[in-house]
Amino acid sequence: MIFTTAYLPPVEFFVYASKSDNIVIEGCENFIKQTYRNRCCIYSANGRLNLIIPLEHCRSPRLPVKDVKIAYTTSWNKIHWRAITAAYNKSAYFLYYRDNFEKYFSLHYKWLIEFNHDLIAECLRLIRYDKPITYSEVYHKSYDSGDHRYSITPKATSELIFPIYTQVFDIKYGFIANLSIIDLLFNCGPESRDYIRTIAQGI
Question: Suppose 143 and one of 53, 147, 181, 201 were both cysteines; which one would form an S-S bond, judging by CB atoms 3.0 to 4.6 Å apart?
Fold first, then answer.
């Protein structure tokens, strides 16, 4: 299966990834704005919150994703980590996983694709999925099957069915499905793998 690079991807990314022996990330596409490539969605005290990584020189419509640089005109990494901490410090497994994620937000990655790679690899490890991540070397407009590059997007509602699990602020806003994988990990911990497996069985 082939996916785009993504910043702490939504749960559906890992549902589809769980059904593949090898996770292939599109390495030859041009960067597309307003996608999960540089944003993730968490559950804050005010409901759904998008965390967006600022980028350098993304006005060009033909900037290869491998050449997209992260901008540090603001301390966005510290801001994002503070937002994540505020959102999940009362969740059941935040302290359990905190150190696994905080370290990445203390580093200054130059390339977006490298930052995303390390976070995805960490999430796969925590879910206990021993799956290699490789990158495409040639761009193909479409594939016959297993192409999730354009279907996993914040602009569309996923067709998957997501069972309800306890979330920190669900009393205020109800259950919000298909958020960043960290929402599932911080709330469900080791049971995240079984949750993903249950959804995958319905595909």
Answer: 147
Over the stretch 138-153, which tens digit does the pLDDT of each residue have?
A: 998 888 889 999 999 9
Nearest to 14 by CA among 196, 156, 139: 196
Terminal-residue alpha carbon distance, the chain: 14
Return the structure tokens found at 131: 């799956």
Pairing of strands 55-56, 69-70: antiparallel
Q: Are 64 and 29 in contact (CB under 8 A)?
A: yes
Q: What is the DSSP string of the chain?
A: -EE---SS-BHHHHHHHTT-SSEEE--SSBP-SSSTTSEEEEEETTEEEEEE--EES--STT-BGGGPEEP-SS-HHHHHHHHHHHHHTTSTTHHHHHHHHHGGGGS--SBHHHHHHHHHHHHHHHHT----EEE-SS--S--SS-B-TTTS-TTS--SS-------TTHHHH----S-BHHHHHHHHGGGHHHHHHHHHTT-
pLDDT digits (tens, 9 = 90+) for 69-120: 999 999 999 999 999 999 999 999 999 999 999 999 999 999 999 999 999 9
Decide if pLDDT at 61 tops 70.
Answer: no
Residues 184 and 41: beta-carbon distance below 8 Å: no
For residues 74 and 54, is the Cβ–Cβ distance under 8 A?
yes
